[in-house]
Design a protein that fits this description.
The structure is a homodimer.
Chain A lengths: L20 H19 L4 E2 L1 H8 L3 H9 L5 E2 L3 E3 H12 L5 E6 L3 H8 L8 E8 L8 E2 L2 E5 L3 H8 L3 E4 L3 H14 L3 E4 L12 E4 L2 H20 L1
Parallel strand pairs in A: 4-5, 4-8, 5-7, 8-9, 9-10
Antiparallel strand pairs in A: 1-3, 2-3, 6-7
Helix pairs in contact in A: 1-2, 1-4, 2-3
Bound molecules: nicotinamide-adenine-dinucleotide (2 copies).
One nicotinamide-adenine-dinucleotide sits at the interface of chains B and A.
The structure holds a DNA duplex.
InterPro entries (chains A, B): CoA-bd, NAD(P)-bd_dom_sf, Rex_actinobacterial-type, Rex_DNA-bd_C_dom, Tscrpt_rep_Rex, WH-like_DNA-bd_sf, WH_DNA-bd_sf
Family (chains A, B): Belongs to the transcriptional regulatory Rex family.
GO molecular function (chains A, B): DNA binding; DNA-binding transcription factor activity
DNA sequence: TCGGTTTTGTTCTCGCGTTCACAAGCGCCT
DNA sequence: AGGCGCTTGTGAACGCGAGAACAAAACCGA
């Protein structure tokens, strides 16, 4: 390993090129748009069409796709099925991802009942809750189990992704336990800042923040009109 | 109106400075961190402490706050209560925002039951659903009403913010109706691209996309380990 | 076989956001 | 009163992402 070849861009054929984070965030959108097109019977589409369906600029779409490789045909466009498979493979949704949900309250139940996960390669293998009163309750065809079963479940199903839907005060504890079990990706719905080891990915979904951002812009609209 | 003075930056004293979008997205996080500090009895904090609590870099925090004004004291730090009020005022959460939720299924019910909205200045004034079987059902103390009541409710309560929690196929129709009623901010949970007039703000929350992003990174971790 | 047409893949430029680093300012202690 | 230490606010450098623009490539029709 002379120099720092692994870090900088390398044209090596088998090595995965590293895809910009902004692009990674859009690939699932393209994937969904392609699925829709496919269901409508479209077999080929141009970057312009696909960009329209995905709600982005066509130049941006082409640049994003170019990070994956050259899967289009100049003068023709992209083969819908082929591109769909390539994106799915790149994201990793061709394989099946086992997921555990911790905190089966209002939100946890909604998540457990959501069919859109399974159809996109995610399989909820267990629902965990600290509240004993909830145990053995059946939600979405799965029994709610005690939080202490986490280790067992993670090891049995090789779970790598955990979802936190507990109150904010419990979130850090739950995250610590998840990390200790070997979970390396966490989707956090609790409004709290999690601290985890560097190799663990955390994504946060915070509904009140979204509303507050809307409120900010809303306020500016009305205040501008008032002046 | 000589030149395009209104569009470019203007140092006018009363005019609201325009705050970068990235900063706006972080202000609610600071707000929450300040609330927590306040509840713990802290009356003063440094940018370093607050940044730690919010999970960001302290330089970034200071720059973000500097867009609002100079609310800190050099050598001392920030007054927690004072800063909290200033941020709340800037975001607009000192006032009360009426909100309607459309689509009272799994997710809509969870949202309706969520107490975190009210405590942050948002008040759910109505729950709407197209399914007649759901009408008159009571969720979170509110009666589920027919979607056709939208106009009436929006005008009665001066609603500016709408939440869409319907299936994807219905989302565009719902959005169109909302816009027609005068709603100018939409939070969309359906996995679909909405097209709305320019002056309407749309924010999208897409849980499967979040999971797919995690899956992408997860895949890279394991594949890196395998090579 | 060859020009024309269409659409991709890529290069280049610009602007935004992040981070470093430091001067200015404030309080405290002597 | 004056110096000292601490913390803010900001100027400047840097890197990433967005978008325009174009050259390269593939198909089509004559
Ligand atoms: N409901 C929503 O629409 C909504 C919206 C935005 C954010 N959130 C956030 O999502 C989280 C869950 O919200 P909710 O409305 O479902 O709350 P909830 O109170 O209905 O459910 C929380 C569940 O977590 C369980 N729990 C508590 N501590 C636990 C622990 N240590 N280990 C395992 N389970 C534990 C509780 O028993 C309960 O069943 C909260 O942090 C909330 O702020 C919810
Ligand atoms: N449940 C989840 O955790 C989850 C997660 C991610 C995304 N989503 C998305 O959120 C949306 C709602 O999910 P859900 O699980 O609550 O679905 P759901 O089927 O349980 O509820 C949808 C509700 O919308 C109502 N509806 C349908 N068409 C309507 C219309 N035109 N006007 C008004 N109401 C209408 C239905 O009657 C139903 O009550 C979906 O788009 C889904 O993809 C849900």
């Amino acid at each position: 390993m002379e120099k720092t070849r692994a870090v900088t861009a390398r044209p090596s054929p088998e090595a995965a090129r590293d895809i910009p984070e902004a692009t990674v965030a859009r690939l699932p959108v393209y994937l969904r748009a392609l699925t829709t097109l496919s269901e409508q019977g479209t077999s080929t589409c141009s970057s312009e069409e696909l960009a329209g369906a995905a709600g982005v600029n066509s130049a941006k779409l082409r640049k994003d796709l170019s990070y994956l490789g050259s899967y289009g045909t100049r003068g023709v466009g992209y083969d819908v099925e082929y591109l769909r498979y390539q994106i799915a493979r790149e994201i990793g949704v061709t394989q099946d991802w086992p997921v555990v949900i911790v905190g089966i309250g209002n939100l946890g139940q909604a998540l457990a009942n959501y069919s859109g996960f399974r159809s996109r390669g995610f399989r909820v293998v267990a629902l965990l809750d600290a509240d004993e009163a909830r145990h053995d309750e059946v939600v979405a065809g799965l029994e709610v189990r005690p939080f202490s079963d986490l280790e067992q479940i993670v090891s049995d199903h090789a779970v790598a992704i955990g979802v936190i839907a507990t109150p904010a005060v419990a979130a850090q504890d739950v995250a610590d336990r998840m990390v200790a079990c070997g979970i390396t990706s966490i989707l956090n719905f609790a409004p709290s800042v999690l601290s985890v080891p560097e190799q663990v990915d955390v994504r946060k979904v915070d509904l009140s923040i979204e509303l507050q951002i809307l409120a900010y812009h809303e306020q500016r609209k009305t205040q501008g009109a008032a002046s």
